[in-house]
Amino acid sequence: MDELRYDPLGGARPAGATFAMFDELRARHPMFRSTFGEGFWVLSRYDLILEALQDPVTFSNAAVSVLDPNPRYRWIPEMLDQPEHTVWRRLLRPLFSPAAVNAMSGKIRERCTAMVDDLAARGSCDFVTDFARRFPTTVFLELLGLPVEELGTFLAWEDAILHGGSSPDRLPKRLAAMREVTGYFAGVVAERRENPRDDLISTAVTWEIDGRPVPDEDLLDLCLLLFMAGLDTVTAQLSYAFWHLATHPGDRSRIAAEPGAILDAMEELMRAYSIVMPARKVTRDVDFHGCPMKAGDMLLIPLNQANRDPAVFPDADQVVLGRQRNRHMAFGVGIHRCLGGHLARAEMRIAMEEWHRVIPDYRVPDGAQPMEHADLLLGLDTLPLTWS
Ligand code: HEM
């Protein structure tokens, strides 16, 4: 089996460089072993990725970062295996159903419109900092019934947990920030037990599993996961979408002129710029298509490797608005498929509609170079935009 030294953290690099690097890797290695850190396997083809994600017995979610194979934390439901995972998904499903998201969408649009109107008069902004991070974090605070004034604190925690970069102290810093988030949510859970309201945490404190109330510790593991899963993903996905549109005027003017094209365009942008790189822990010795995997090995599954596979998508490295049969897996596959998919799609659609209604014509200023990073997810650090 091929061996390479692929560093999953990498450093800052020009926007889009990681996708191009993965495209090259796929062309040469359908899978390989990275010798970085303790070493881990990397899958690079649609069919292999589909098969691995649909086999949760061989590929466990007990560890979901290739550099941290024996974590001391447990995000619920992401790091649960069956049958425990099924019980939690059943409890959570109604809170993220299309009906639940519809009920929130008026509020989401209101928040979005206010942010876009504020920015419009400025004539320029850094899209990542000024919009893509603030908007989903505000929606998340609404969802959990938390005060929107906490936005700054949440953004700082998000940075420490999700953007540690490759610095040697990233793990201790990540753990410290996770402890702070958990401490904060412990206060909220206690308060909602006393004074329930109409929000997610107030519902969650009423849940029972096997006839027993769900312990606080598990509720905190759930809150932490929702924090990790719901914020940075939408930020990163929106940032790549707007980077593409800002640098492809034909696609941008089509979207601005035809709001009805936004839904399909968003799916295509998610396919072409899939940001999530799930990982799994191998549970038994297995020969996976010639790969001698051992129990305890880690496996990295960059979803962009599946979604830009030319064997499945013609012109896979291009954004093709109006693409037919766009069966991408940007929200994952199998039992851990994204629980917040309806919410994420609503947030992104509303953001694209509201932004293009008010600011239809924008671009990256001359000489500016948007930069990206890779960690648990790919994302942009900066996206300077200007408009008249
Ligand atoms: C564009 C935005 C988003 C993308 C691309 C995305 C993508 C994903 C992917 C690929 C997974 C599967 C991970 C795996 O297989 O290990 C996942 C899981 C999950 N996502 Fe999302 N997500 C997004 C937004 C959200 C939002 C807004 C929420 C809710 C607040 C959310 C909640 C979750 C949860 C709870 C899981 C774990 C599901 C489970 O383990 O059963 N996601 N997401």
Kindly describe this structure:
With 388 residues, the chain is an alpha+beta fold. It has one domain: Cytochrome p450. It is built from 15 helices and 16 strands. Strands 1-3-4-12-9-5 form a six-stranded mixed beta sheet. β3 (31-34) and β4 form a beta hairpin. α7 (151-162) runs antiparallel to α8 and α11 (232-247) packs parallel to α15 (341-358). The longest helix is centred in the middle third of the chain and has 25 residues, at 170-194. The protein starts with a strand and ends with a strand. The mean pLDDT is 93. The structure holds protoporphyrin IX containing FE.
**Helix share bin:** 40-55%
Relevant CATH superfamily: Cytochrome P450
The helix/strand class is alpha+beta
Query: Major sheet: size, sense and barrel closure?
Result: 6 strands, mixed
Number of helical segments?
Answer: 15
- Quick one: how many beta strands? 16
Low-confidence stretches: none
Shape: globular
Mean pLDDT: 93
- Distinct compounds present: protoporphyrin IX containing FE
Give the end-to-end Cα distance, rounded to a whole number of Å: 54 Å
Please tell me the CATH architecture by its name.
Answer: Orthogonal Bundle
> Which sequence of strands runs across the widest sheet?
1-3-4-12-9-5
Portion in strands: 5-15%
* CATH third-tier fold name: Cytochrome p450
Give the class-level CATH name: Mainly Alpha
Q: Which radius of gyration do the C-alpha atoms yield?
A: 21 Å
Number of domains: 1
